[in-house]
UniProtKB/TrEMBL annotation:
Residues 2-300 form the NAD(P)-binding domain. Pfam families: GDP_Man_Dehyd. Keywords: Lyase, NAD. GO terms for biological process: nucleotide-sugar metabolic process. Its cofactor is NAD(+). The keyword Lyase applies. This is Unannotated protein. One of its GO terms (molecular function) is dTDP-glucose 4,6-dehydratase activity. InterPro entries: dTDP_Gluc_deHydtase (IPR005888), NAD(P)-bd_dom (IPR016040), NAD(P)-bd_dom_sf (IPR036291).
Amino acid sequence: MTGGAGFIGSEFVRSSLSGSLFGGKPSKITVVDALTYAGDMRRLSTVSRNDGLVFVKADIKEELVMTSLIAEHDAIIHFAAESHVDRSIERSKDFIQSNIVGTHTILEIAKNLSKVVVLVSTDEVYGSLDSGSADETFPLKPASPYSASKAAGDLLGMAYATTYGLDVRITRSANNYGRYQDCEKLLPKLVTNLSKNVKIPIYGDGSNIRNWIHIQDHCEAIARVLHLGSAGEIYNIGSEESYRNIDLAKLLLDYFRLSEDMIEYVTDRKGHDFRYAINSDKATKLLNWKPKRKLLDSISEILAGIQFLS
């Protein structure tokens, strides 16, 4: 598992080792993480002594290291990625190296060793939609260096599936929320600020729309893709919960019993996509998967995770 000390990867590790995900508890998980700004070993503290977990600090682009590790396993779940859109606008080279070159390294090794690869991607590769929702056949139209780098990784994966017959499966999820998320992300930033009675920044007029999914629902879907998915297939992983950013902010203000004076409108991000929306019917039908959790029921969990990492 690459990026297993990150937000989503660590949840998958914890849930897998507890046996709560589809497919049951694996005999062994090897986590590879370079522990850059997004990786934090504290996320794995509850399972660090588990006999089924091996941790290796390494860069996924280190071919010799990755080859020796991948050779010992049946499948690779590739979580490792640079993922913050604002950072990608200022430092795009880091995203190219991690999300494209790093993904290519994983695919090349998997091809040579005939391993299954699950690439964990994002709904942002579809770009902004004025209406409707994107299914897995929808054309890719990434707008940021981040989403472009993820789209490139997806295309590499599909190319390896087509050209070499590699068993590649791709998930594209909506915005995640849950325990131990980085405070630079939208929802933890809003929750952190409001819990401290600090104003919350909202880009532009706040009309941008995002779909939200709990990290545990996402990880359950990934487990089902690993055990039930098919080679060369893509699976959208979304939910019924979509909010304008301003409406999400107001819901949180109500939760914390604060006024709308706490909202601070800031200059909009360059190339800010207006609306993301994905159709997850394929995952529901073929994987027997549906999201179970609701965003507003998870605020205390989000806040506890933020406090744990602070």
